[in-house]
Amino acid sequence: MPELPEVETTKASLTPLIGKRIGDIYTSAHRLREVIPSDLDELVGAKLVRVVRRAKYLLLDFNKNGSPFRLLIHLGMSGSLQQHDALTPRKHDHVIFGFDDTSVRLHYHDPRRFGMVVWADDGERYLNKLGVEPLDDGFNTDCLYEIIHKNPKRPITRPIKSVIMDQSIVVGVGNIYAVESLFMSGIHPATPAHQIDKDKITLLINNIKLILTHSIGQGGSSLKDFSVGAGKTGYFQQTLLAYGRAGQPCTVCHEPLSSIKIGGRASVYCPNCQPFNSSA
C-alpha cells in the first residue's frame, strides 16, 4: 500500500501540472472504494492551483472562473497517479485528466480498486479522525508520551508497533516504516507502549522522522504496484535493514532476523538487538 513517502512523492510529481487547465476528463464505469462522481466534468476549464497532502490523501485544488473545486484522492492498496501521453485508457485506468497546452494526461491507475477519487466535501469523514503528521514539529516526545499515558490508570498497553501505525494517533507510518524505525531504535515491536520510557520514545520519534524523510528523498518504496510520474519507481526498498529480511543476518549483530505478526502484519525484528522486555 502506498504510504506517506509514496504519497508525498506523488504530490511532488504533480508540480509541473500546477497552473494548467483541465481540457477533458475520462472516467471508467468501475466503482472504486467510493463511486466516482458523475459530475467530474465540472472541472473542464478549471485550473489546478495547489496540491496538498494530508496523511495518505491528496487534495487537489482547482479554480474555475473564481469558483473553487477540491478533489480528494486516495491511492488505496495499489493505486498511482501516472503521467502519460497516451490518449487511450489502459487496463485499470479509472480516471484520466487531460490538460490544455500539454500532451500529458494524468492517469489514476488502480488495479485493486480500493482507492478513491471524490469531491473533498464528500470525503471529509475520512479526514476528520486523522492524527498528527509525523514530520510536523507537533509530533514529539511529549506528544506521544501524553497520548500513551493520557489516562494514568489506563495507559495504552497495545504493542508499540500498533500504536505508531494507528492513523488516529500519527498518520502515514505504514508497516515498512514502523518495522524500520523500531529496528533502528532497538525496540521490540511487541513491547507494550506504556512500558517505553521517554528516552526511547525520543529515539523512536527521531528515527520515524529520519526514515520517512530518507524515503521521500529516495522516491518512496516501490513494492508490488507503486509507481509515480511516468511509471517511475522509488528506491528506498533497496536500503531496508529489517523489513522483508526475516531469516537473513542482522546488519548490526549478524544474528538471523525473526518475524512475528502484530495486528495481522508481519513484523521483522532482531531478537538480539530488539529483545522483548516486559519492563522496558
TrEMBL record:
Record-linked InterPro entries: DNA_glyclase_Znf_dom_DNA_BS, FPG_cat, FPG_Glyclase, FPG_N, H2TH_FPG, Ribosomal_uS13-like_H2TH, Znf_DNA_glyclase/AP_lyase, Znf_FPG/IleRS
Keywords linked to the UniProt accession: DNA damage, DNA repair, DNA-binding, Glycosidase, Hydrolase, Lyase, Metal-binding, Multifunctional enzyme, Zinc, Zinc-finger
Reactions mediated catalytically: Hydrolysis of DNA containing ring-opened 7-methylguanine residues, releasing 2,6-diamino-4-hydroxy-5-(N-methyl)formamidopyrimidine; 2'-deoxyribonucleotide-(2'-deoxyribose 5'-phosphate)-2'-deoxyribonucleotide-DNA = a 3'-end 2'-deoxyribonucleotide-(2,3-dehydro-2,3-deoxyribose 5'-phosphate)-DNA + a 5'-end 5'-phospho-2'-deoxyribonucleoside-DNA + H(+)
One function term, GO molecular function aspect: damaged DNA binding
PANTHER family for the chain: FORMAMIDOPYRIMIDINE-DNA GLYCOSYLASE (PTHR22993:SF9)
NCBIfam families hit by this protein: fpg (TIGR00577), PRK01103.1 (NF002211)
Protein name, as recorded: Formamidopyrimidine-DNA glycosylase
